[in-house]
Amino acid sequence: MRGRGSSIVWSVDLFSVSKPYRAILAQTRQLRKRRNGPLSTCRLFSSSTPAGAEFMQVFNRKVKEKQRDRAALDPETSRTVDYLRNEVANRLVERLLLIARKHETMVDIGAGAGSIEQAICGNREDPHDNGVMQSRINKIIMTEMSEKLLYRDSDPDQFPFNKDLNITRVKLDEEVLYTPELLNAITGSEATQPFSDYMFENSVNTVISNLSIHWVNDLPGLLRKIKFMLVPDGLFIASMFGGDSLFELRTSLQIAEMDLFGRLAPRLSPLADVRDMGGLMQQAGYNLITIDVDDIIVSYPDLMALMRDLRDMGESNAVLNRPHYLPRELINAAEMTYRKMHANDDNTLPATFRIIYLIGWKPSPTQPKPLERGSADVKLKDVL
């Protein structure tokens, strides 16, 4: 996959990587091996906050909202960087197609401009699947913290999915989630009783999220809220950036910054590991959990093209103690390191996006249950 092209060329000075960077280089070599090897990811960030505990504030949500607002200011430019979100949305909908059930009310958390909705209404690889998902959904509620992004593609004449689906848009921060506006959208009317979180219990059939929840501070709390609002045997399905995403950029910046300044700054956001997510889903009380991983590698002409695309996607760094500028000399040095360690044969720069897919179900007496230990009537040695 190729990202948006760039005509900017940065000149750099050659430098060699010396002994202080052996630890970073060793980690990078392992990451490069894992690109085509068995699944194994680094624990870069753990969100395993116990139930009821005070969660750690890692991300500035106000900054993230401003970044998404800015990304949507130029709709045409914003759409040119939808390639990754659209690709993952299609893969998410392919998984949803395998679950043959009706979705009376579906909530799309962190919907952006509507990549999931476009994927639901788009043409599938198998023509027999065209229109199948549309027929299964009665109502879909798009939620997004950036109002500009939420309404970017809301014109039904230009974007037919707005007519093909029964869509309600609600501006909200997914970290808060429970708001009177969302409750009104779910019930179809304004509540006559004083607002309470308990009103969300067993209120929706399906919750879906595409490349959004990796920016949530209280991820365990969000997973519990989602499960609470699902009906028994309700479905939660999501994708998120995880673990080794952008390891090429991360290690190149680390090496360059150590060489230039003798220190490391948090220039890329921490991400949850696939093992973290399995534990968090279990801790939140989901049943029949399925987690799988894709590595999507996108090639860019240069480092600035990658960084511009991340900015225009609204995926810039939002860590609380992040640096507020990137020195030109650091960009030059990082690009040189990137090319030396990771460049493709055609001299483009690969960027690996690790996508974690989550599926979990709210417990229900009707769900399949494992047989009791010792109840099998066939011995394994007889089969083998």
TrEMBL record:
Instruction: Name the UniProt key words of this record, in alphabetical order.
Output: Methyltransferase, Transferase
Would the keyword Membrane be found if you checked this record's keyword annotation?
Answer: no
Q: Which Pfam families match?
A: Methyltransf_23
One GO MF term attached to the UniProt entry? methyltransferase activity
Q: Name the InterPro entries on file.
A: Malonyl-ACP_OMT, SAM-dependent_MTases_sf
User: Organism's domain of life?
Assistant: Eukaryota
Keyword Transferase annotated: yes
Q: Name one GO cellular component term.
A: mitochondrion
Gene Ontology terms describing biological process: methylation; mitochondrial respiratory chain complex I assembly
Q: Can you name this protein?
A: Methyltransferase type 11 domain-containing protein
Originating organism: Lipomyces starkeyi NRRL Y-11557
